[in-house]
Write a structure and sequence with these properties.
Layout: E1 3-8, E2 11-22, E3 26-38, H1 43-65, E4 93-99, H2 106-119, E5 122-128, H3 130-140, E6 151-154, H4 165-168, H5 183-189, E7 190-191, E8 194-195, E9 198-199, E10 206-211, H6 212-217, H7 226-238, E11 242-244, H8 257-263, H9 267-274, H10 284-298, H11 314-320, E12 323-329, E13 344-347, E14 359-360, E15 366-369, H12 376-387, H13 389-395, H14 415-419, H15 421-427, E16 428-429, H16 433-436, H17 445-452, H18 458-471
Protein name: ABC transporter substrate-binding protein
Organism: Eggerthella sinensis
Pfam families: SBP_bac_8 (PF13416)
C-alpha cells in the first residue's frame, strides 16, 4: 500500500496503491483515492483508517465482479513513512551487549545494519556467552565503576531482577510505541509496573511437535487428557515407534517450565513461591510434573538410550520416523529443522498437568537502555527506529513468528499455529515460570534427571530444586 497525502481545504485524502490477489490469476493493482478525515487527525489513526477502508473497498470489488473463487484481499504494504522520530544523530557509537545467538537473529542483524546505513551511527556489538551473561552483566550493573553497554538485549522479569532495573534501566512507559505492542509482548516488557525495554524478538508457541504421518498410520487422534496421551504413547511403543524424543543431555530441553505456567496462573501460588511461604513440594501439580518424567522413562516412552540424546539429534529424530513426538516450539521447524515442516503438527504438552494439556506462550527478547549511559540520547533514537513500523516490517519480513507489534506485517505465522489456533487459544498460558518465579532456572532439571535415574527420591528431588532456586536469591546455602 503506497500512501500519498492530498489536502484540499481542511480535508485529508490518501492515494492507496493496493494489490488484489486471485489464485491462478496473478496480482492486480488498484489506485484508490479515499477521504479519511479532517486535517489534524493523528497520522497513525489516518493510516489505520486507510488500511481498513482499502480492505473494504477491495472486498467490494470482488463482490461486484461476481468472483466465486476464494481470494486473498490482503492490503500489502509497499512502503511506509516513519511514524516516530529517529535519525536525529549521526557519527555516534552505540555499544550493544547480548547473547551471541540472539545477536545473530536475522531481524536483529537487519535492524542494526539498516540503522547504521540510514543514520551514519555505528553499533558496536559485543556477543556474550551464557557464562558471560550470568557473570559479566550483573557485575557491570552492580557498580558505576564497571563498563556497561548502552543497550542490553535480554529477557525480562526475573531474568533482570538482579540488575536493579529501577536504578539502571530507562523507563519506556510513556514511549510513543507502547500502544503498538501486542498484549503478550507488553506483558513481557513490564517490571515493577514500568516498561523496561522494547520487545523485539520471535513470538513462538510451545507444545508437543508430532509426526502427522505416524499418527495417521496408527489411527491415532490428538489426545485430550493426560491418560489419553499415555495411551497414545503405549500404542506407538507397541508398534515399534519411540513415542517421544527427549534431548536429555541438553538440560534446558527438559522444559519442565511448560506445565508450570498453568498452576502459576493462580496468584496465591506464584506469590507463595516468591515470598518463600511455599516450596515446590507444597504444590501438588509440581509433584505431578516431576513424576511424569519418571513415568515416561520407566515405561520406555523416551526410548532405551534416551540418556544419549542431545540437541543435535532433534532434527534427525523428527525426520527419521523412529520418534513420533518432541517437546518444542513451533518456530523451531523453520529455524532448526531441515525436513518438511508440513509433515509436523503441534498439539498440547501433556506433562502430568494440567489435565487437558497446555501450550506455552513466548519469551520475547527486550532492547533495554542503560539510563546512565553517556549515549542514552542516541540509544533511544535506535529504539524508536526499531519500534517504527516502516522499519520493523522490513526487518521481520519472511521471519516465522507471531506478531510482536499490532501493525506487524510481512512476518509469517507458522502453519502449525494456524492449523491449531482454536485449541491454542483454549489451552494457552503465558510464560510465567521462566520470567516470574524468582530464582527459577531450567538447569534445575538436573535434579529431575537424578530422580529419573533413581539417584534421588521424589521428595529429595523437589527439595533440591527448591533449595537451588532459593540459593540464587541468597535465602539458602547452595
Amino acid at each position: 500500500m503506497f500512501f500519498r497525502k492530498h489536502t484540499g481545504g481542511t480535508l485529508v485524502w490518501r492515494r492507496l496503491k493496493c494489490r488484489l490477489s486471485r489464485p491462478g490469476s496473478g496480482d492486480s493493482w488498484y489506485y484508490l483515492f479515499v477521504y479519511l478525515g479532517d486535517r489534524g487527525v493523528e497520522e497513525s489513526a489516518l493510516k489505520s483508517r486507510a488500511i481498513k477502508v482499502a480492505a473494504l473497498i477491495l472486498a467490494a470489488l470482488f463482490t461486484v465482479a461476481g468472483c466465486t473463487s476464494h481470494a486473498d484481499t490482503t492490503v500489502v504494504p509497499e512502503e511506509e513513512a516513519p511514524l516516530y522520530t529517529w535519525g536525529e544523530f549521526t557519527g555516534r557509537t552505540i555499544t550493544v551487549w547480548g547473547d551471541k545467538d540472539d545477536l545473530s537473529r536475522p531481524y536483529i542483524v537487519r535492524a542494526f545494519e539498516d540503522y547504521q546505513q540510514k543514520t551514519g551511527n555505528v553499533i558496536e556489538v559485543v556477543p556474550l556467552s551464557k557464562v558471560d551473561l550470568d557473570e559479566k552483566v550483573p557485575r557491570a550493573f552492580s557498580s558505576d565503576e564497571e563498563e556497561r553497554p548502552d543497550l542490553l538485549l535480554s529477557y525480562g522479569g526475573t531474568n533482570v531482577e538482579n540488575l536493579n532495573p529501577d536504578e539502571n534501566f530507562y523507563d519506556f512507559t510513556d514511549a510513543p510505541w507502547i500502544d503498538d505492542l501486542t498484549d503478550t509482548a507488553l506483558t513481557q516488557a513490564v517490571f515493577n509496573g514500568k516498561v523496561i525495554g522494547l520487545p523485539h524478538g520471535e513470538a513462538s508457541v510451545s507444545g508437543t511437535l508430532y509426526n502427522k504421518e505416524l499418527f495417521e498410520t496408527y489411527h491415532l487422534d490428538i489426545p485430550t487428557t493426560q491418560e489419553e496421551f499415555l495411551s497414545v504413547c503405549e500404542t506407538l511403543l507397541q508398534n515399534g515407534v519411540t513415542p517421544v524424543y527427549l534431548p536429555y543431555k541438553e538440560i534446558t530441553m527438559l522444559l519442565y517450565q511448560f506445565p508450570m505456567d498453568s498452576f502459576l496462573k493462580e496468584q496465591r501460588v506464584l506469590d507463595g513461591l516468591n515470598d518463600n511461604t511455599l516450596s515446590y513440594a507444597d504444590v501438588p501439580e509440581m509433584r505431578k510434573i516431576v513424576q511424569w518424567y519418571k513415568t515416561m522413562s520407566d515405561s520406555g516412552y523416551f526410548g532405551e538410550a534416551y540418556a544419549d540424546n542431545d540437541w543435535d539429534g532433534m532434527d534427525e529424530a523428527m525426520q527419521s520416523g523412529e520418534y513420533a513426538m518432541m517437546l518444542c516450539w513451533d518456530t523451531w521447524l523453520y529455524t532448526g529443522y531441515t525436513g518438511d515442516p508440513s509433515n509436523i503438527g503441534i498439539m498440547p504438552a501433556f506433562m502430568g498437568t494440567p489435565e487437558n494439556g497446555s501450550f506455552e506462550g513466548p519469551n520475547i527478547l527486550l532492547g533495554i537502555a542503560n539510563k546512565k549511559s553517556d549515549q542514552l540520547d542516541v540509544t533511544l533514537d535506535l529504539i524508536n527506529f526499531m519500534a517504527d513500523p516502516c522499519n520493523y516490517n522490513v526487518h521481520y519480513a519472511g521471519v516465522y513468528t507471531a506478531p510482536v507489534f499490532n501493525d506487524q506485517r510481512g512476518s509469517i505465522t507458522t502453519p502449525q499455529y494456524m492449523e491449531t489456533e482454536r485449541l491454542i487459544n483454549k489451552l494457552f498460558y503465558n510464560s510465567t515460570a521462566w520470567s516470574r518465579v524468582r530464582g527459577f532456572s531450567q538447569i534445575d532439571a538436573s535434579y529431575i534427571q537424578q530422580y529419573m535415574q533413581d539417584e534421588l527420591s521424589l521428595e529429595s528431588c523437589l527439595q533440591a530444586m527448591n533449595d537451588a532456586r532459593l540459593s540464587r536469591l541468597g535465602l539458602q546455602e547452595p
